[in-house]
Design goal:
Blueprint lengths: L1 H31 L1 H30 L5 H26 L4
Helix pairs in contact: 1-2, 1-3, 2-3
Length: about 100
């Protein structure tokens, strides 16, 4: 139970960090304009959808029985990796040499 709570806390903290990072990227894309803004507009919904999916999985972790935790955790960890990769790739595309 303690491991599950720690995992949930760690992921919630990372979600908050990613939300802040998305806001900064949007501000930066708007300041830069042109291709960066257009690229941002095309991809932000996809990233936001991934963050919503992670939040839903956190809610599942919180409210499901202990035995369901392992399966849900695996899916959550996979989504975590995908969001991290996608966010880094988007940053590199928007702002090369960042």
């Amino acid at each position: 139970m303690i491991e599950r709570k720690k995992h949930i806390s760690r992921i919630k903290a990372k979600l908050d960090e990613w939300d802040d990072e998305l806001e900064k990227l949007e501000d930066r894309a708007r300041d830069t304009g042109g291709d960066a803004l257009e690229h941002w507009e095309r991809h932000k919904m996809e990233l936001q959808a991934m963050l919503v999916e992670m939040q839903e999985r956190i809610d599942e972790l919180r409210y499901n029985a202990e035995d369901a935790w392992i399966g849900i955790k695996g899916g959550l960890d996979k989504t975590w990796v995908n969001v991290a990769k996608d966010l880094e790739a988007l940053t590199d595309r928007l702002f090369p040499g960042n």
